[in-house]
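Before going further, it is useful to explain how the protein records used in this thesis are read. An example of such a record is reproduced below.

***
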Amino acid sequence: MVRGKKSKENEFGKIFTENYSRLYYYALSYVRDSETCRDIVGDVFESAWDDYDRLAVKGELTPYLYSSVGNRCIDYLRRQAIEDKYREIQLKAAEGHAFFPNTEMDERLERVAGVIERMPSRTRFVLEECFFNNKKYREVAEVLEITTDGVKKHIMKALKMLRDEFL
C-alpha cells in the first residue's frame, strides 16, 4: 500500500504526539537530566521517521520507540560512567603530582640514579639502551651478542633492583 507524503506525516505526527511525553518520562527514569532525555527521545523519533515505512507496515513502531529509548539511555549512562572514570583518573594523576613536592621528587630521582649506578654494567647498559634511548630488545641483543631473552632477563633484574629500593 502506497501512502501519500501528507498521510505519512499525519500518521507520524499522531504517533509523535501520543508517545513523546511517555517516552520522555521513560527516559527520565534512566537519565536524570531533562535536556539529555529530550535529545534521546528526539533522536529516536528521527530514526523512526527514517525507517517509518518498514516499522509502520509491521506494526512495530511503539515497541521500537520504547526499546530504542531504553537502549540509548543505557548507552548514554555507559558513556557517562567511562567519562567519570577517566575524570577520576585524571584527578588522581594531578593530585599525585601535587602530592610530591619538588624536593621529595628530587630525592626519589637521586635514589633511582643511585640504584642504576650500583647495577652490573651489562644490566645498566641494557636498561639505559631500552628505556632511555628507546632501543628495541633485538637491537640491544645484537650489540651485546646475546639473545632477546637475555635482554629481558637484564631488564627484569634492573626493575627488581629498582622495586626493592622503594619497598
